[in-house]
Design the sequence.
């Protein structure tokens, strides 16, 4: 995908491995960076995303689905999960656009990653879009603890998986309330960012 900012940037997709506590590969998150046409400047999606139009966000999401399609046998053969970040602007489109919906729904190993700053996350299942997404797709709450989101969406059971922010873990791991909080999280799987380095497990 080509994004027109101060100059032209093109997207490059990468797989970020996610490991469990035994260093076994659990899945791969598809992440994007944007590189200037001359290759001299490279930016993460977080810096570019606020400047992307809905159409550009749609193109990037479709580009990620196309990548999944080319390597779906790898995910199935190795029983791995694929995570794709779902921007808020694409959420409604995914539910309304039958072609986009069917493209995403065909991958049994796909989970959609919702960031903690997702609009209306604190409404939990009262957020109609989020509740509908959870009915049709497995959701993963990414970077939980990075911001000010409440635990309502977690306790409402909207997420199959929660990935904790590493700074959240570092700040709260020694607190008496941390372990009961971890046991109270209502989801089948809990992932945490490895504190020692940037690998995810």
Sequence:
């Amino acid at each position: 995908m080509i994004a027109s900012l101060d100059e032209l940037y093109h997207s490059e997709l990468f797989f970020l491995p996610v490991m469990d506590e035994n260093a076994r590969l659990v899945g791969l998150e598809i992440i994007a960076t944007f590189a200037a046409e001359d290759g001299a400047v490279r930016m993460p999606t977080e810096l570019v995303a606020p400047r992307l139009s809905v159409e550009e966000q749609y193109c990037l999401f479709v580009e990620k689905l196309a990548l999944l399609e080319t390597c779906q046998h790898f995910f199935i053969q190795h029983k791995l999960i694929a995570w794709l970040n779902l921007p808020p602007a694409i959420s409604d489109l995914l539910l309304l656009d039958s072609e986009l919906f069917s493209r995403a729904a065909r991958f049994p190993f796909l989970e959609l990653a919702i960031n903690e700053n997702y609009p209306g996350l604190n409404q939990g299942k009262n957020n109609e879009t989020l509740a509908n997404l959870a009915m049709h797709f497995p959701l993963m709450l990414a970077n939980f603890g990075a911001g000010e989101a409440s635990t309502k969406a977690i306790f409402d059971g909207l997420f199959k998986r929660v990935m904790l922010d590493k700074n959240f873990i570092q700040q709260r791991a020694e607190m008496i309330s941390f372990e009961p909080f971890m046991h109270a999280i209502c989801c089948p799987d809990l992932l945490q960012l490895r504190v020692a380095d940037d690998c995810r497990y």
